[in-house]
Automatic annotation (TrEMBL):
SUPFAM superfamilies: Activating enzymes of the ubiquitin-like proteins, JAB1/MPN domain. Residues 378-475 form the THIF-type NAD/FAD binding fold domain. The keyword Metal-binding applies. Residues 625-738 form the JAB domain. The keyword Nucleotidyltransferase does not apply. GO terms for biological process: proteolysis. This is Thiamine biosynthesis protein ThiF. It comes from Pseudomonas helleri. InterPro entries: JAB_dom_prok, Prok-E2_A, ThiF_NAD_FAD-bd, Ubiquitin-activating_enz. Pfam families: Prok-E2_A, Prok-JAB, ThiF. Gene3D superfamilies: Cytidine Deaminase, domain 2, NAD(P)-binding Rossmann-like Domain.
């Protein structure tokens, strides 16, 4: 069988002796030692991409079937190439002109030998394990697998219809909808990519009238929809409209009819009487449904530059006529053989199409489900932590957020915040919103309110009413407490870092808000007091750095590394926890030496409360179980101890955190209990230290004997009066908690008010 071989490159008279590149010499020696590669000659080529050295071989190891479906020969004529200006610098060209166009081939110009795509990585990765011997083995592997169509696996996405090109256009995510709107114009701007191998154009749509007024040169875009086609081999690009027409016709479609329809539609909204300068090119966008086993698997969008203006293209297609006498264009309908030759001869240049991300793809890339991601949320506090978290959620397209913060961006914020220097002096929410809106500008923008989330503000109220989640990142005590007390507030998540930055905390209400954030806060403090990790949890208060002349112009010393680490952890945990219905409290500790993170999950119990004269006392089932256990251990005697908790005078709430065991010097009998004092000062000092001064003494508790109710006795009321008088020195109310066999009683007293039973 006579083979038609492509003459490529110039023979080297001295053969292998004339090779100058070390890789060429290595490959040549490997071929000499490989029985499946028969060296024919050495060549070279000097053109645009620099020097290419070529080793012509006949290659084949007998593993290619004689009657394989793709017609690959058992021995093929190949050109093994080396060009140090290319990536990778080694390649393979097929010199047989009848060699089939298959998948996994690189783009080559018409008339050049086809190029086999051996690698899907860059040379910097390949060369770590590359050897000439492995290179030759991979050539044989490519021939063997391609011969039987097994190089492209059945579960892979369909192969593209054409090879890649050195041009690409990045279209807006809403391109499919915008391109059908005649009132919108596609504007293409060349990106400063710095690449000499790929030219990139960024596309965006603007109002056609605005584009004209601003002098923008929109590219006329013709959208052509083609019938579905079965998956086919990768092919060379069509060079003319005629080639493209033939490609469509071979698949049962009519390219010209669709092209003419698109041209007419665009002409109908084009001012033909204007003599203004027009773009000298047209962009044709082809939509090609791809079939796999008879079912549409995907839709390919193909793009071609037409080297003609819209008007001249319309004229070549017989749809426009230019009146030289009047100097104007008019719509017409012409037919004829000469006309066909004109439009078919027009050159086209293919370009790759890419799209900006739409919301479903953003979420898919981030491993998110759309069903869990479509909600409105409020983030209160967009400081260093809050801004980093909402930036991550924006990049995942998780939620639509309203940012609420009353603060102004100051110079010291830049050490840890996502905002730039240009934001100094502006409200933080506006600066953060500006950054977030630039991430995916086609997505709905976030809202920003320059206020406190607890302000009596109509915009804040509307945002809270529409939201299903409020993330408190204010790092304050009053915000979550005030929000938690409101019945109309959405589910609340409170996130913060400890003063040292070594730990972060998430407190999250249950979906129905049966356990409010105030109760979870109290249970968090109890965990601090009872857990080994709580020993130094809230330590680390530094004196800070002065960042201004005011007495409040002090900023904590805290690494941005810790901010970003905890922001990543918390943003993910808030997202995952929000999908569940239960309440949650968790602490994460970072080990600086190992880089490890330890999680401490806190069991959350049902909360309870009682009200009287404007005061509310809160406790939880975990506290009840604790004091009930202490009572059981002391039976048959009564027992008791001090109560630890905290009081909020603004909200008039008292939260019980923990009941302590009886001091050693206490007097316990089956019918009475007198609390001692030994060791209690040390207990209170340790409590204040562990909780940063928040939890302190709030009263006493004691038990009643079996078969007695928890109602306070006259002795109990006298004790309460005495305690109230003592606490009055600090202007604080006092709480007495009595644990009975089957019930409990909470009583509050002050030196000013009548004692009330709860």
């Amino acid at each position: 069988m006579r083979l038609n071989l492509i003459e490529w490159g110039n023979p080297l008279e001295d053969g292998a002796q004339a090779l100058t590149l070390s890789l060429s010499e290595e490959i040549y020696r490997a071929c000499e030692r490989n029985e499946y590669f028969q060296i024919q000659e050495a060549r070279s080529l000097l053109e645009g991409a620099g020097l290419t050295e070529i080793i012509v071989v006949r290659a084949g190891d007998g593993s290619v079937g004689a009657r394989n479906p793709n017609g690959i020969l058992r021995k093929e004529w190949l050109a093994l190439t080396v060009n140090m200006q290319e990536d990778p610098p080694v390649g393979v060209r097929v010199l047989r002109s009848e060699f089939p166009v298959l998948g996994h081939q690189n783009y080559t110009r018409t008339g050049e030998p086809l190029s086999l795509c051996l690698y899907n990585s860059t040379w910097s990765e390949i060369q770590r394990s590359w050897t000439p011997q492995k290179f030759l083995a991979r050539v044989l592997w490519w021939l063997r697998e391609s011969a039987e169509n097994s190089l492209h696996l059945g579960d892979q996405p369909l192969e593209q219809l054409f090879f890649n090109t050195p041009f690409q256009i990045i279209l807006p995510a809403k391109h499919a909808k915008e391109s059908l709107n005649p009132a919108r114009r596609l504007i293409l701007v060349e990106a400063e990519s710095g690449s000499t191998e790929l030219t990139t154009y960024l596309g965006y749509y603007v109002d056609a009238n605005a584009a004209t007024a601003c002098g923008m040169k929109g590219i006329p875009t013709l959208r052509v929809n083609l019938p579905p086609v079965e998956s086919s081999r990768v092919e060379r690009f069509p060079a003319t409209l005629g080639d493209l027409d033939q490609w469509v016709e071979n698949r049962g479609g009519s390219f010209f009819d669709e092209l003419a329809k698109a041209i007419k539609q665009l002409i109908s909204v084009t001012d033909l009487s204007s003599n203004k300068q027009r773009p000298k090119c047209v962009l044709i966008l082809l939509s090609v449904p791809r079939l796999r086993n008879g079912t549409v698997d995907k839709v390919d969008d193909l793009a071609y530059w037409v080297t003609s203006s819209l008007l001249h293209l319309g004229e070549a297609c017989g749809l426009l006529f230019y009146d030289e006498y009047r100097g104007s264009w008019s719509p017409v309908e012409l037919i004829g053989h000469a006309l066909e030759e004109r439009w078919k001869a027009i050159s086209i240049l293919p370009t790759q199409l890419r799209y900006k991300l739409d919301k479903p793809l953003i979420r898919s890339l981030s491993c998110l489900e759309s069903a869990d991601s479509d909600f409105e949320g409020v983030i209160a506090g967009v400081g260093a932590l809050g801004s980093s978290m909402v930036e991550m959620w924006t990049r995942e397209s998780w939620g639509q957020w309203t940012l609420i913060d009353p603060d102004q961006a100051m110079p010291h914020n830049l050490a840890r915040h996502i905002i730039p220097d240009s934001a100094i002096g502006s409200p933080k929410v506006r600066a953060v919103k500006s950054i977030l809106d630039q991430i995916f500008p086609e997505q709905p923008p976030h809202m920003a309110i320059d206020a406190s989330v607890v302000d009596d503000d109509v915009n804040v109220s509307a945002a809270l009413s529409n939201a299903s989640l409020v993330v408190d990142a204010t790092t304050t005590l009053h915000v979550p407490r005030e929000l938690g007390d409101r019945d109309g507030t959405p589910r609340i998540a409170s996130v913060f870092l400890t003063p040292s930055g070594k730990s972060s905390v998430l407190l999250l209400e249950d979906r129905d808000r049966g356990i409010r954030i105030s109760s979870i806060e109290a249970q968090y403090y109890r965990a601090i007091l009872e857990s080994p990790w709580g020993e130094l949890h809230l330590d680390g208060h530094s004196k800070g750095e002065w960042v201004g002349n005011g007495c409040r112009d002090i900023s904590l010393r805290l690494s941005v590394e810790l901010i970003r680490l905890h922001a990543s952890l918390l943003s993910r945990q808030v997202r995952l926890s929000q999908a569940k219905s239960g309440a949650r409290a968790c602490v994460w500790d970072v080990n600086d030496e190992t880089g490890g993170v330890a999680a401490h999950e806190i069991t959350i119990s049902e909360s309870k409360e009682a009200r009287s004269d404007g005061w509310t006392v809160r406790w939880d089932q975990g506290f009840i179980e604790q004091v009930r256990s202490l009572r059981s251990q002391a039976l048959p005697n009564e027992t008791g101890g001090i109560l630890l908790g905290y009081t909020d005078h603004q909200l008039k709430t008292i939260n019980i955190v923990k009941g302590m065991p009886a001091p050693p010097d206490s007097i316990s009998t089956p019918t009475s209990f007198i609390r001692g004092y030994e060791g209690q000062e040390d207990v209170l000092l340790d409590t204040r230290r562990r909780t940063a001064g928040i939890v302190d003494y709030i009263g006493d508790w004691h038990s009643h004997p079996p078969k007695h109710s928890s109602r306070p006795s006259s002795d109990d009321m006298n004790l309460l009066a005495s305690l109230a008088l003592t606490m009055a020195n600090d202007g604080l109310p006092v709480v007495m908690f009595i644990m009975g066999e089957t019930d409990c009683t909470v009583t509050i007293g002050t030196c000013f008010d009548e004692l009330k039973d709860y």
